[in-house]
Amino acid sequence: MIAISNQDKFGKVPYRKYGFIPAEEEGESVSKTLEYAYDDWCIAQMAKAMGKEDIYAEYLRRAQSYKNLYDPETRFMRAKNRNRWAKPFDPSEVNFNYTEANAWQYSFYVPQDVEGWKELLGGEGALAAFLDELFTANSETSGREQADITGLIGQYAHGNEPSHHMAYLYNYDGAPWKTQERVWEIMSNLYHNAPDGLSGNEDCGQMSAWYVFSALGFYPVCPGSGDYALGVPKVESATLHLENGNTFQVHVKGKAKETHYVQSVRLNGQPYSKTFIRHEDILAGGVLEFEVGDEPNKEWGSAPADRPVSRISEHLITPVPALASGLRSFDDTDTIRLNCALKDATIYYTIDGTEPSPESGKQYEAPFPSSKPLP
Question: Beta-carbon neighbour count of residue 191 at 10 Å?
Answer without folding.
Answer: 20
